[in-house]
Amino acid sequence: MKDVAARAGVALKTVSRVVNDEPGVTPGTAERVRAAIEALGFRRNDSARVLRKGQTASIGLVLEDIGDPFYSALSRAVEDVAHRHGSLLFTGSSDEDPLRERELTLAFCARRVDGLIIIPASADHTYLLPEIAAGVAAVFVDRPAGMIDADVVLSDNTGGTHQGVRHLIEHGHRRIGYIGDDPGIYTAALRHRGYTGAMAEAGLSPREAWTVMAPPDPARVREALTVMLAGPDPVTALFCGNNRVTVLALRELAALGRTLSLVGFDDLELADLLTPGITVVAQDPAEMGRIAAELLFRRLAGEGGPAQRIELVTRLVERGSGEITPEPPGN
Amino acid sequence: MKDVAARAGVALKTVSRVVNDEPGVTPGTAERVRAAIEALGFRRNDSARVLRKGQTASIGLVLEDIGDPFYSALSRAVEDVAHRHGSLLFTGSSDEDPLRERELTLAFCARRVDGLIIIPASADHTYLLPEIAAGVAAVFVDRPAGMIDADVVLSDNTGGTHQGVRHLIEHGHRRIGYIGDDPGIYTAALRHRGYTGAMAEAGLSPREAWTVMAPPDPARVREALTVMLAGPDPVTALFCGNNRVTVLALRELAALGRTLSLVGFDDLELADLLTPGITVVAQDPAEMGRIAAELLFRRLAGEGGPAQRIELVTRLVERGSGEITPEPPGN
DNA sequence: GCCTGCGCCGATAACGTTGTCATATGGAAC
DNA sequence: GTTCCATATGACAACGTTATCGGCGCAGGC
User: Fold this and answer.
1) Stated pTM of the model
2) Most CB within 10 Å of its CB: which of A231, A306, B146, B190?
3) Would you call A256 an interface residue with chain B, using a CB distance cutoff of 8 Å?
4) Is the CB of A123 less than 7 A from some atom of nucleic acid strand D?
5) Would residue A326 be called left, alpha or beta, if left means φ above 0 and alpha means ψ between -120 and 50 degrees?
6) What are the tens digits of pLDDT across the range B217-263?
7) Residues 35-54 of B with CB under 8 A from A
């Protein structure tokens, strides 16, 4: 910038004015400066700008795994909102590891991001308190923050699952299995609650062996299905607590040569092309990302008020309901 | 940092030393400094550090759409490599818009990223020359850079398609349709070449109406299929130039109530569960990302030498080959 | 002719780090 | 006791911007 000033025969500050489109520069001078910029291939160093201004025009997104379609859709929506606000986006995957989440988040803070969007892996976010006090905005998505009061955008996990299970019940199913994720995960626990609620509401008391809650794993899913399908009164339907479980269950069912009426939480690409079609409780990851990002930027623009908790409804997408086999005789 | 120094009764520089684990600080002093850091909730401002050191420990990734599974898998691999090298990752989606690609790239450069990984949307990357001269490393992925000589990691698009089409031919197909993306896209053009090559090699001369090259769009795919399936000699097999086309074709075929032997470029989640199974020419996006990122960091570590061009082989994943209907009698 | 106000521009001080060099301190060697 | 070296610490400049403020020229009103 100094070189540009020298070449254009003006002061540093004048170059700065031109670069930032500030008023108070004669067109002639501005033109000379622009020519010098062009000639020298000058580009402003945003690091220095950040240092001086205190605002970085960037936000950080911490999620579980950018490779997962659910999160990548969410990420894309966040990026679009950030772009509209002239912000760049840092992304990082925590792999569901609280330590890594913390590392990533603090690394973003050290870069002085203006705000954070976090899909929590940790149950304790008090480590963020100094940052928040220092002015960083944070919005949590998919799961609430741990031990601190913060904005959060959620899906109606319990209600959605309830609706999905009721759908199965209304189609005549009585023996319905449930495979969910690790119960330590917030969403997994809530969805499971939706299942037990819907079953209880219908006066059904599922066997203990029909519920499996564990990190998705082919062997475990296969074993769970084997148990559920054994004996004289096997399950006739299955609810899967997330898309990874759904995929594993479909694959293992195919391997076992069995089919079940299946409802899954989270939509799947191609779900409509499978036979039988898979009914799903769909979240809208893009909408979640959009809403969270917009809330973040409202906070950054100075919007006050207490922490918000926004819960989005899920949508039951019925596919191939006709395929759901009615309860076989004998029950 | 000044405050920390004051509270610990030491000079600024000593705090800096402690923060950076530099040698030459008595354990006692270091402990006092650490206590002050803890008490004040101090965290180093990396913007200032960047300004001073000239290295940002961050890289930028410009891709077409982070929401697309192919790119998100690639992105995840890049992130992992970056993490191993202590770097953070900026990501941005260009939406196949050259202007947006340029904007994003230059914004990353203004933040002084150490390096760039770019999936090009533009045919002219001369705008990067000043940046590269200034020391930014750049590796291109999936498509080569335009008008400049730069490292690039590619798939064997032509060879992969050739192999996929030959697979169909070996299974007895003679009338094979091709639906690809906009021929202006590098990969789309090369894949199409693989199709024409394989057909010619087998002495087949496909009708013009059996090839459609255009941005994926449901209506257009449906129309293309209608034409290909009309008349006394309809196509018996179809090659789809990328996963978006494959999905559209599957959907439209289902709507038309027809099935075709289908081979697609790019793998699909759940492709194994469809009936008939979909044979694909699989790229490994994670591998591409990993290799590109590792090359980038080698360049950043000072590795010289001419620009590299790395071409990765594709893998033909046969699924449900039994389902491929042999050429009907009459031909 | 002098003062006032306004529009353009420049000098200088920050922003929060780190690199360089100088200084203090203490112990070992003579 | 003096010299010397090593080690711990500090003062200060520099990184590349932007904010503040002041100066300078020029037009207009008395």
Assistant:
1) 0.91
2) B190
3) no
4) no
5) beta
6) 999 999 999 999 999 999 999 999 999 999 999 999 999 999 899 99
7) 41, 43-48, 50-51
